[in-house]
Amino acid sequence: MRTLKNLSVFLGLSGLIWAQANTFKIGLVGAPQTTWLLNQEDMDAGPILDYKTTWGFMGGLSLAYHFSNYVGVGLDLLYSSEGQRYTGKDEALGLRWEGRTRLNYLKIPLLLRLGSDPESPVQLSFSLGPQLGLLLSAEDKMTVKLGSSELSLSTGNKEGILYEVTPINPERVSLNKPAYASTTFGATVGLGVAIRLTESLHLSFQLRGDYTFTDIENKKAEYAHGTHTHSYWEQDIKYRSASHGGGGGQNEPESERSPTAALTGGFVIGLTYLIPLQ
């Protein structure tokens, strides 16, 4: 008899927990973020290529399903604007330059979500998981100054990656492949709090970062100029390798430049609506 009583209590509590936990969450998130493109050659270049703090934006839709009070899974669809600013100088030649890489991605993280007591007015939250990045657009820009003279170079991938020098000797050269990888794979992690505004509406604040494990650059990108074939990443078409003085040979092999990883970090603000599923 006691066993049946204990079983009925257990089933009753289980039903209550499931009713609270079986919840679907949908929300909007957004964040200013600092972004970095980390490459060993670039970081070792010294004053010839200085990294500058670069800001971007991340925002989109957040979906989650909690199958217990404290554990759930989530899938986000996020637009992420990122890249890197650079400056450099060569005192001997009297050259100075400024550069900027802009990369826009659709990021899709698959997340394990952990949280504290859902009945508390303030709840802790933690998320971790792999992330797929789909490149939407890419652009490199550089301005080189010598005294009062100025030379601008730019590339973009709206109609294929192009090389353009203006206003001196304007020229447009197509690459055989995009300069940046169309997909990236990495991971994201976040830690924060959620404030329970109402039973169904939560306001969240989270420190969140992500990092790519795969090379964001396409080292097979090349262009033909005259009778020569050059790697985009080893020639003066690109301000980073230009400042390093790389390349120059005819029909060069694939670039030996080391992989480049993207790192972002931001303060995410979100508004989430809870939908009990019973």
Shape: elongated
What's the structural domain tally? Answer: 1
CATH topology: Porin
Structural category is mainly beta
Structure description:
The structure is a single chain. This protein has 278 residues and is mainly β. The chain has three helices and 14 strands. The strands form two sheets. The protein has an eight-stranded antiparallel β-barrel with strand order 1-3-4-5-6-10-11-14. It is elongated and about 70 Å long. 31% of the residues are buried.
Structural descriptors:
278 residues; mainly beta; Porin; eight-stranded antiparallel β-barrel; 3 helices; elongated
In a nutshell, what does this entry contain?
The protein is mainly beta and 278 residues long.
What secondary-structure arrangement, pairings included, does this model have?
Layout: H1 2-21, E1 23-38, H2 40-43, E2 50-52, E3 54-66, E4 71-90, E5 95-115, E6 122-146, E7 149-156, E8 162-166, E9 171-174, E10 183-196, E11 201-212, E12 222-225, E13 228-231, H3 239-244, E14 261-276
Antiparallel strand pairs: 1-3, 1-14, 2-4, 3-4, 4-5, 5-6, 6-7, 6-10, 7-8, 8-9, 10-11, 11-14, 12-13
